Amino acid sequence: MTASPSQLPVLDLSRFRSDTAERAEFLRDVRDAAFGPGFFYLVGHGISDRLIRDVLFASRNFFALPEADKLDIEMINSPHFRGYTRAGREFTRGQPDWREQLDVGAEREAFPLSRSAPPWTRLQGPNQWPDALPELKPLLLRYQQEVTELAIKVLRVFAAALGQAEDVFEPIYVPSPNQLIKIIRYPGRAADESDQGVGTHKDSGFVTILLQDTVAGLQVETADGWIDAPPLPGSFVVNIGEILELASNGALRANVHRVVSPPPDTDRLSVAFFLGARLDATVPVLTLPPELADYARGVTQDPQNPLFRDVGRNYLKGRLRSHPDVAERHHADLLDEYAIKPGLAAAY
Ligand SMILES: O=C(O)CCC(=O)C(=O)O
Ligand SMILES: [Fe+2]
Question: Does the ipTM surpass 0.90?
Answer without folding.
Answer: yes
